[in-house]
Amino acid sequence: MNNTTNQSACVDFRRLAMSRRHALSIGGAGMLGLNMPMLLRAAEKKTGPPAQARSVIFLFQFGGPSHIDMFDRKDDAPDDIRGPLKPIPSTIPGVSLCEHLPKVAQIMNRTTLIRTLHHKNKNHNSAAYVALTGNNPPTDDQRLRDSLDLFPAYGSVVDHLAPGAKDMPTFVAYPHVMRDGSISPGQHASFLGKRHDPLFFSTDPNDNNFKLPELSLPAGLSPERLQSRRELQKLIDRQSKLLDYSATARGLDEYYEKTLSMLTSDKVRKAFDLSAEPVKVREAYGRTTYGQSCLLARRLVEAGVKFINVYFSSSIGGKSTTSGGWDTHGFNDTRMFKIVDKYHFPITEQTLPTLLLDLEERGLLDETLVVWMGEFGRTPKINKNASRDHWPGCYTALLAGGGVKAGYVHGKSDRYAMTPAADPVSPGDLAATMYYLLGIDPASEIRDKQNRPLAIADGKPVMEVMA
């Protein structure tokens, strides 16, 4: 079965000849050399749209962007709901955007807006975990920490069930480790094991000398000599029987093998070489860390990476107008609306339209799902400090490409964007939608550290958003 067949065949999760549990018991390689996505794409009859996405670019806006000031405006609401930012029309009839996003407004006809995302977690770490895994945490607590009891990141699940080509990483995440006090959970493979962790780096893609130290061999050390050293280490490991007794060691060993193959891969090094991009293209994305991170995401898609997490910031943000995430309620006056004007909106205005148009012009948008979202929205009612607080009750995610409709709005919030009024969507539903579009059955199971079977998505695909 070739890649063309894989992409064109329709998904049928109900009519597979074997049961899902039996298929999973066979293992990731599947029967007759077929893995799970191949089995799904090989179904003879379809119950829904075909899986179209080869890659996902997940643009995570840590801190919580304001849905009511951006993509779910209520322009007829009272001043203390509507806010001071004026509306402008977009290329979706009847949908207005903020006055500071005219370029984004022009590419809305290439996107789907899901306006009814909702959950109950009001703290950044717990809400980020929901956004990055599609699963609810055991508690809504700012002190929620990374743990092997918590669910793995989307990309790690993809690497476990449907890994990409051996000469490229399946899952890449950068350029920040996000934290609100403690490190936000959901950024790693958790109980799936270290071998499914993302290829992560924190070097700045906007640096003129950007390169990955993980992919740079020490001076005088050839790939052949490195491999010889690795073989010696494996011999020592076998003699000490270390790998027989430690699952952690086995995971680290496999992760080391993957990293070693990348060190010796010209394809990987070329994919990360931003200096190969014309100056005009680099300037179009914006000479910021986030802008160049989005450009790198496009290069990784071209190279065959299946899941890419780009983090807007390492922190939730606050009072700075030059750095940080979207959490802007630390101001005690209307400067909450000025920080997004001076920092968040200009970066978004430059990078998001450029990325979508660049993917489109290169013929990549149809097979690349782009997801832009935060962990929650902001309170529709402006507080006594003239800013907006955390609001997980109803917020918006923007999707584009990868098999979703163009110029479509799914769901409807109430008159003040406080709660879903029609077609509510949970983070688990969004997770199931992403997996579906990648050709992975959302009902597939993984096993936690107690060997208990867990469905990869706590929800159902939103079929209405699919083209």
Describe this structure in words.
There is one protein chain. With 467 residues, this protein is α/β, with parallel strands linked by helices. The protein has three domains: 1-48, no CATH class; 52-210 and 276-465, Alkaline Phosphatase, subunit A, CATH 3.40.720.10; 213-271. Helix content is 32%, strand content 14%. The protein contains 15 helices and 18 strands. It has helices at residues 3-8, 20-26, 36-41, 79-82, 102-106, 124-133, 154-161, 223-240, 242-245, 247-263, 266-271, 279-285, 289-303, 335-361, 427-437, and strands at 55-60, 87-89, 96-98, 111-117, 171-174, 179-180, 182-183, 199-200, 307-311, 368-373, 377-378, 390-391, 395-400, 408-410, 412-413, 420-422, 445-447, 453-455. The strands form six sheets. The chain has an eight-stranded mixed β-sheet with strand order 8-5-9-1-10-13-4-14, with helices on both faces. It has a two-stranded antiparallel ribbon with strand order 2-3. α13 runs parallel beside α14.
Q: What's the average pLDDT?
A: 85
Count of separate structural domains: 3
Helix content: 25-40%
Oligomeric state of the chains in view: single chain
Q: Spans of 5+ residues with little confidence (pLDDT < 50)? A: 1-34, 41-45
CATH architectural group of the largest domain: 3-Layer(aba) Sandwich
Fold topology:
Elements: H1 3-8, H2 20-26, H3 36-41, E1 55-60, H4 79-82, E2 87-89, E3 96-98, H5 102-106, E4 111-117, H6 124-133, H7 154-161, E5 171-174, E6 179-180, E7 182-183, E8 199-200, H8 223-240, H9 242-245, H10 247-263, H11 266-271, H12 279-285, H13 289-303, E9 307-311, H14 335-361, E10 368-373, E11 377-378, E12 390-391, E13 395-400, E14 408-410, E15 412-413, E16 420-422, H15 427-437, E17 445-447, E18 453-455
Parallel strand pairs: 1-9, 1-10, 4-14, 5-8, 5-9
Antiparallel strand pairs: 2-3, 4-13, 6-7, 10-13, 11-12, 15-16, 17-18
Helix pairs in contact: 13-14
